[in-house]
């Protein structure tokens, strides 16, 4: 049976979550920014762009560009699934921290507060690109300086939006969550399954 979709993501968490619901896929790696050239998709937030619009646009652009890659590489056509996650505090988007100092700053902003996590999922098919967004609220307990320092000395903060992973060490900081656990991880399975079913791909 042919693999039904491509997943345009380097995230091991998204791959694990798709496997969790039995969806077969092939990875489609888009180019990241490097000394050899710019990234395939501009993931920077545009001036005046709201976090909600930003995360949906980025997910859709990844999926659509994934289809262009199929054409450029003369690959077999299949729908392309992509996603993007943002952590929002005071209407500011906290991206992946670039240094221990920035990771610690993020943890201090999240400490003792509730923040929003949005993950947009997009499916590029023949026709309009389909997309849905999961919105969750995550509350951190108060963190002390020692905890923040020790956490930022681990590898965990540096490849995750907001500088933390709900499924990792930071789980001990999280007092409660309202919304989608898998959405906070980076791929909301309820919304993902709906998009696949809308395109004729059965999950069950």
Order of helices and strands: EHEHEEHEEHEHH
- How many strands? 7
What is the CATH top level name? Alpha Beta
- Biggest sheet architecture: 7 strands, mixed
Query: Architecture, according to CATH?
Result: Alpha-Beta Complex
The proportion of residues forming helix, as a percent range, comes to 25-40%
Distance between the termini: 15 Å
Please report the number of helical segments.
Answer: 6
CATH topology, by name, is Maf protein
Domain module tally: 1
Pairing-aware structural class of the strands and helices? alpha/beta
Shape: elongated
Strand content: 15-25%
Question: Please, could you describe this protein's structure?
Answer:
With 204 residues, the chain is α/β, with parallel strands linked by helices. The protein has a single domain (5-198), classed as Maf protein, CATH 3.90.950. The protein contains six helices and seven strands. Strands 1, 2, 3, 4, 5, 6 and 7 form a seven-stranded mixed sheet that branches. A hairpin with a 2-residue loop joins strand 3 (80-89) and strand 4 (92-94). Helix 3 (100-110) packs across helix 4. The longest helix is centred in the first third of the chain and has 22 residues, at 51-72. The radius of gyration is 17 Å and the shape is elongated.
Please sum up the structure shown.
With 204 residues, this protein is an alpha/beta fold. The protein contains 6 helices and 7 strands, in the order βαβαββαββαβαα. β3 and β4 form a beta hairpin.
């Amino acid at each position: 049976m042919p693999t039904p979709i491509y997943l345009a993501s380097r995230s091991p968490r998204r791959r694990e979550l798709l496997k969790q619901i039995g969806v077969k896929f092939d990875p489609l790696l888009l180019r990241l920014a490097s000394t050899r050239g710019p990234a395939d998709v501009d993931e920077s937030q545009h001036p005046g762009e709201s976090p909600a619009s930003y995360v949906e646009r980025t997910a859709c652009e990844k999926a659509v560009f994934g289809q262009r890659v199929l054409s450029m590489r003369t690959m077999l056509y299949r729908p392309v699934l992509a996603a993007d996650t943002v952590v929002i505090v005071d209407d500011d988007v906290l991206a992946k921290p670039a240094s221990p100092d920035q990771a610690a700053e993020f943890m201090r902003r999240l400490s003792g507060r509730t923040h929003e996590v949005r993950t947009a999922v997009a499916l590029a098919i023949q026709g309009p690109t389909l997309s849905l967004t999961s919105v969750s609220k995550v509350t951190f307990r108060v963190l002390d300086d020692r905890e923040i320092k020790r956490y930022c000395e681990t590898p965990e903060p540096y490849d995750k939006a907001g500088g933390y992973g709900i499924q990792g060490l930071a789980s001990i900081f999280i007092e409660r969550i309202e919304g989608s656990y898998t959405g906070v991880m980076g791929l909301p399975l309820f919304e993902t399954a709906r998009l696949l079913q809308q395109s004729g791909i059965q999950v069950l």
